[in-house]
Amino acid sequence: FYHMDLYGSKERFDIFPEELSGRGDRSLGDTRRESALSSEKVQRPQEVGYDLEKEVAELAKMYGLDEDREKELELLQGHLEKVESRWPPARTEKAGSQGSVCNSSKSSSSVKDPSQSTKQQRLPDEASQGENQSKARADDEAESNIWSRGGLSSGGMSDEWNSQAVSEEEEEEEEAADIFCSTCKIPIRAFDKLFGEHKDHEVAQLPSAVESEKEEIHKNMCKLEEQIAQMENVASHLEEIFITVEENFGRQEQNFEVHYNDAVQVLAQKYEEQLEALGEEKRQKLEALYEQLVNCGKHLDTCKELTDETQELFLENDKAEFMKTLFFFPYNYRLEEFLKKEVDLELSTLADFEERVIDVSEVEKLMNSINAIPAPCAPVINPQAPNAATGTSLRVCWSLFSDDTVECYQLCYKPVSNERHSDEQAEHTLKVKETYCTISDLVPNTQYEFWVSALNASGISPPSERAVHVTAPSPPTIKSRKIRSCENAALVCWESRDINPVDSYTVELSKLTDEENDDVITESIVGIPNCEVLIHLQPTQKYRVCVRAQNLGGSSERSEPVLIHTTGTCFYLNEDTAHPLLAILDDGFTISCDELENPECDLPVYDNSFTRCIAILGSLIPFPGKHYWEVEVEEDTEYRTGVAFENTPRHGHLGANNSSWCMRHIITPSRHKYEFLHSGMTPDIRITIPPRRIGILLDYENCRLSFFNADIAQHLHTFNSHFQHYVHPCFALETPGILRIHTGIATPPWTAL
């Protein structure tokens, strides 16, 4: 035997070159072993058996075991147990293969193990399913390692082979699955996907499959929760139905009892009435019979009495007395009268009673009314919901807080009027099946009074309490002539088209660009109490502005939109301040005057109009910051232009007071004279180039009012004054001519002083 140190040394590899492919890294050997299992398991079974027999013979000769066949048999048996434990499906085939080797080595080995001789008989048919060559070599190398340990007995070597086989089997069984087979719905190893029975199956990563299944479980849990909620709702509804059935039963039982008692009472009353009538008929019959019986008795008595008298007369023997008595007046008269009187021998009444038919129609009506429904109770109109109305329609809803059966509803309404004769307003009536109704063709922003009744076969309910609803307002009208704007703000004014006041207004802004939709609302200002609003905007933009009116009924439609440009300051001319001789052309920014012979003319003058100076004011500029506009003039026209306060005197000239600042142009025989007037004073300034386009820059923050010759970008003059209030642009003509005002112009850079 070689020394034990050679077991794991390099020299051992020289001695056993067959182990070079099987030693080294344990995991690498396992991987190769698994690859060999899938690729060469069934390819060369006969070579595996041949190589194993040859190597066993060489090892036995090398280690001196050719005389000890029992150890050889134990070694081969341990090897067989190892192979059988590692490859259960081919257990019989491996045992048969090794049994063949044992049989070729020593014939006496068949006596040692009877089961092994059975395996030897199955060798020819099952050798094709043995192990692959590489695995057999690896097992033999492990076997040679055991033989190299000279101090170990044959039984110890067998136990070590068994423990090593068990440990390798446990390692393979404990190898975790890392993918999921979607076809078989089980976790598998990646090796099984590449070479095993799951090769053609659809697989997924195990974590993703777990997440997917968890999501599916979560969805199922949500569905179960929904079903639980639905079943709970159904159970709650069933409980309510159960209670309702009990209540309805009690109500119907009470109703039946009441109707039954009424029917019994009516029947008893009918019985008493019929019994009383029958007794009365009996009394009348008996009285008639008795009276007839009495009369008959009287007649019979009279008849007997006359018979007795006649018989006595007949028996009278005295003839004279007989004749005297026969023609005696009382007797003769009485007898004649009695004989003339006819005797009524018929009964005055019959013994049979009249057949009486009891009238049970009332009872039948009562019995039929047991299942009849009562007349419904009065409905209740719900309060008006927000945004439940338009300018011409209203939606009215009501409720019936009872279990009464209703066939239809009758809805009545009329407009509410503050006048004394409001009851004379026309009432309108509608019949509807549902508990709501939409009424159209109404007047915008108008209050209407509604009341409703419920109807069924038994009758109509009392009317509900009257409720007042209001229609939405009409769209406002924006006063485009009164809109003022600058580079960062705009003042929008509008007016309401409704007689009744509204609650508030909403302004909607849409920033217009070439890429965006014009209908996109970029900003909304809500809760505006009056008819104007100051809006902060962005410079050099274009906006579309609409206004809506709001009240309890809802929102009106959008007003007609207006466009606002924030390029520069925009304002309009105030016609109420214009002198009667001053005309405003169609563009709204050109003023003209044809004659000035009598400035103080007799034309109608408004309260806010200029009376002496032929002037006009522009709209108020209520925005802080800088504002720029231009005035186009003619060289031979005398004019004034500048700014003025709202309260500047209308009977004076612009620039002649402390509430106005203006530039004046007059023509003298020698030159064009320009004055910059405030409180009637002007600096001595000579302008060599008469301006044809005057630029005016109003700077609230720096308290400046500057004038420029816009054609040549020349600064003419600047007023430095603290403006206590916002000012109006002002314009005046002193000779016939025209002035053209240009607004919405961006402030030129050369205006910076």
UniProtKB/TrEMBL annotation:
| Record's keyword terms, sorted | Coiled coil
Tell me which Gene3D superfamilies the record gives: 2.60.120.920, Classic Zinc Finger, Immunoglobulins
Task: Give start and end of each Fibronectin type-III domain.
Answer: 379-475, 476-569
**What sections of the sequence does the record tag as coiled-coil?**
261-292
Q: Which organism is it from?
A: Rhagologus leucostigma
Protein's gene: Fsd2
| UniProt feature, compositional bias: Basic and acidic residues | 19-35
What ranges does the record give for the region Disordered, renumbered to this chain? 19-50, 80-174
Q: Which residues form the B30.2/SPRY domain?
A: 551-750
Mind telling me what this protein is named? FSD2 protein
